[in-house]
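Technical annex, item 7. During the second reporting period the consortium partners agreed on a shared format for inverse folding records so that results from different sites could be compared directly. Each record opens with the tokenized structure and is followed by the designed sequence. A conforming record, contributed by the partner at site C, is shown below for reference.
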């Protein structure tokens, strides 16, 4: 019995830390229950509404105190019910249906404004239910009947959401901190040697995981901050300590990645790759084990995490000994220092993790309240429902464009009585994004997934399957849809297309006209969305990217400026290095997201896309180099070399002039200022009194460590200047070393 319980607990813990699997299992069970029950009762038509409501509500990853989660579920259920009723009541009038569609689209903009986490889902879900209601016979009797089905589907979804909490109660603050450790685990896993090749894009998985970690850290910062404002407790202090430890741990992982880059493909380093792989795998598993301990706060989990932390120390020591036998050049020495810095932080993690366990004995019952956040305080919603103080003009334009376009689609559907033409409006709602690049990517994924799904679903017309097999296949397709929804969108659409065909087949015979109608509606909706994004109030990313990139460059300037106290340049600074790091990483994240949208825009409108990609990449490398410098300084490294204050000042000036040149569109005055500052920086670095002739050796001095990172920072800045690639300013190219 104890073995079964341990296996069940282990399975639940693994599912808890894999939200895609948890979401897919939850929504699939919620989808399948009404399907089987309605078919058993001989009422297959009602299964569609109940299953769709239960699936969509179960897809939500609810966070926060239990009353907050119930409130979010209740609000989304009410929105679905109201949308369904509105669709039914306006089904018999083209004008009423068109106006109602506009209202639903505008309300979707409100949901997006109120919550970035739940708003988009609520907007799409409400549109789906409205269009399904619009496809039904009109009238109050039908509307009341469908309201009952929506309520039953919402009840099933609520049971599925709550049922998981019974097995693993999730304190919002604990879970939030645990998510940061899971994000760190994924970051470490992306560093495995198998992912390091000569491909220029080899670091893209690492960069994506780095951005995900930054998002998780920011979210946790908000949640703990909101909790501490309303309630002070020892547990919150210990969770805050674990949040700080994951920040310090991540800084050292970033420094390790920077140290690995110049030597990962060296022939003499090849024999250490298996050990390096073991170290990275163990570090990834250990950080995930820390996350499990934070959630379940049991002594046995803490004991397992402590063993893994010690194993990391031992493996790091083995790797260090093998690396020391390779050579004593500067790159090897830098790598050894990075490993030592990671090893030093592991005991701190163990001690901080132990405090969270000691102050939180495991409960044997389902808790009725969560101690970290007050369920009656608006602060308990701060991490998840956070409307902006002002309306975003981009969101306003997007909502207006969405309303006009979906109203046109509904008028087309109702006016010409297009068979299942509601898919036109729904495709527009899903595909149309605020910018053209994202719209094109989403349209391509949706059309590609629909086409491949239709081709495979067409084979079902030739096979007569019993009802229980159709239900089983629909459940499998539902799982695939939920699992890939946030991983690969086109794969999710492939699965949901087959799911819808099977679901319809259970209500009656399905012929080729059904799949053809869905395919044509998807094609038309995607085409309308693309045309609207291109011509109707277009929001071009090329106009935004220079400002975002300039802000990222200035964030790096502020980052190195925040380290002035450690470098002995200033007695105090406006912000701490950790806060400056956070802002720099966020600025890089915003620039990278903008770049991704920029690359999706028509090539004829963006002649310098490669330059934009190079500048964003180099600026992120500057941030990573500065993080490595911050790790050395945080561990006590200092430099007494004369002229360091002048170098820092010139780096700041050069970064500022570089940002000004980017956002000004490379004006002559900005280029002249950048040229002057870069020359002064190179002159100061060349005349610095640093003995660079000696090898760093097995134990590089703190001063050597600092100067190495400063030199790398200057080199990355020079690379950024070269990446500007200005035909009228070739003199800049001659300045780079």
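Designed sequence (site C submission):
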């Amino acid at each position: 019995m104890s073995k079964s319980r341990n296996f069940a607990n282990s399975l639940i813990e693994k599912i808890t830390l894999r939200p895609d699997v948890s979401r897919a299992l939850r929504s699939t069970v919620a989808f399948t229950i009404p399907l089987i029950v309605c078919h058993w009762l001989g009422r297959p038509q009602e299964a569609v509404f109940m299953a769709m409501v239960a699936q969509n509500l179960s897809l939500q990853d609810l966070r926060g105190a239990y009353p907050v989660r119930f409130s979010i579920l209740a609000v989304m259920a009410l929105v679905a019910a109201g949308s369904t009723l509105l669709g039914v009541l306006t089904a018999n009038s083209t004008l009423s249906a068109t106006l109602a569609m506009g209202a639903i689209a505008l309300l979707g903009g409100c949901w997006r404004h109120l919550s970035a986490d739940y708003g988009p889902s609520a907007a799409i879900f409400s549109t789906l239910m409205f269009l399904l209601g619009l496809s039904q016979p009109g009238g109050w009797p039908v509307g009341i009947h469908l309201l009952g089905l929506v309520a039953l589907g919402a009840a099933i979804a609520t049971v599925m959401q709550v049922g998981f909490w019974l097995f693993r109660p999730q304190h919002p603050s604990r879970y939030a901190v645990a998510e940061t450790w899971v994000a760190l685990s994924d970051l470490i896993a992306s560093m495995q040697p198998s992912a390091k090749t000569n491909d220029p894009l080899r670091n893209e998985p690492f960069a994506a995981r780095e951005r995900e970690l930054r998002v998780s850290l920011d979210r946790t910062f908000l949640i703990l901050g909101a909790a501490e404002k309303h309630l002070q407790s020892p547990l919150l202090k210990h969770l805050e300590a674990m949040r700080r430890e994951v920040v310090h741990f991540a800084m050292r992982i970033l420094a390790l990645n920077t140290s690995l880059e110049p030597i990962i493909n060296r022939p003499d380093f090849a024999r250490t790759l298996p050990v390096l792989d073991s170290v990275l795998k163990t570090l990834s598993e250990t950080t995930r084990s820390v996350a499990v301990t934070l959630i379940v706060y049991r002594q046995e989990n803490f004991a397992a995490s402590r063993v893994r932390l010690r194993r990391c120390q031992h493996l790091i020591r083995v790797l260090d000994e093998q690396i020391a036998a390779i050579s004593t050049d500067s790159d090897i020495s830098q790598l050894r220092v990075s490993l030592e810095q990671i090893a030093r932080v592991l005991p701190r993690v163990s001690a901080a993790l132990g405090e969270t366990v000691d102050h939180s004995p495991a409960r044997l019952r389902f808790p009725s309240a969560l101690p970290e956040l007050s369920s009656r305080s608006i602060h308990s919603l701060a991490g998840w429902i956070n409307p902006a103080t002002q309306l975003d003009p981009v969101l306003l334009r997007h909502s207006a464009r969405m309303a006009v376009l979906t109203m046109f689609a509904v008028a087309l559907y109702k006016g010409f009585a297009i068979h299942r033409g509601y898919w036109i409006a729904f495709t527009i709602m899903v595909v149309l994004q605020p910018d053209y690049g994202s719209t094109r990517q989403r349209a391509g994924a949706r059309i590609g997934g629909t086409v491949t799904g239709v081709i495979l679903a067409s084979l079902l017309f030739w096979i007569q399957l019993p009802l229980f097999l159709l239900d089983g296949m629909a459940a499998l397709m539902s799982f695939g849809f939920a699992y890939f929804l946030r991983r690969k969108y086109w794969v999710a659409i492939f699965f949901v297309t087959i799911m819808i065909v099977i679901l319809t087949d259970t209500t009656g015979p399905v012929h080729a006209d059904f799949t053809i109608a869905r395919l044509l509606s998807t094609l038309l909706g995607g085409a309308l969305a693309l045309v609207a994004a291109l011509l109707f109030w277009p929001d071009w990313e090329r106009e935004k990217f220079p400002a975002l990139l300039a802000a990222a460059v200035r964030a790096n300037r502020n980052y190195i400026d925040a380290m002035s106290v450690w470098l002995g340049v200033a007695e105090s600074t406006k912000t701490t290095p950790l806060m400056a790091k956070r802002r720099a990483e966020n600025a890089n994240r915003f620039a990278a997201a903008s770049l991704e949208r920029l690359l999706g825009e028509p090539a004829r409108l963006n002649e310098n896309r490669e330059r934009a990609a190079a500048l964003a990449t180099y600026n992120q490398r500057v941030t990573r180099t500065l993080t490595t410098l911050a790790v050395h300084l945080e561990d006590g490294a200092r430099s007494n070399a004369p002229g360091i204050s002048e170098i820092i000042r010139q780096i700041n000036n050069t970064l500022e002039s570089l940002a000004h040149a980017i956002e000004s569109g490379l004006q002559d005055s900005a280029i002249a200022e950048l040229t002057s500052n870069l020359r002064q920086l190179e002159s100061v670095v060349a005349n610095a009194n640093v003995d660079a002739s000696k090898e760093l050796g097995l134990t590089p001095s703190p001063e050597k460590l600092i100067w190495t990172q400063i030199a790398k920072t200057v080199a990355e800045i020079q690379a950024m200047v070269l990446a500007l690639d200005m035909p009228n300013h070739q003199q800049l190219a001659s300045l780079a070393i």
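The chain is about 75% helix and 0% strand. The chain has four domains: 1-169, 172-362, 392-538, 541-735. All partners now use this format for quarterly exchanges.
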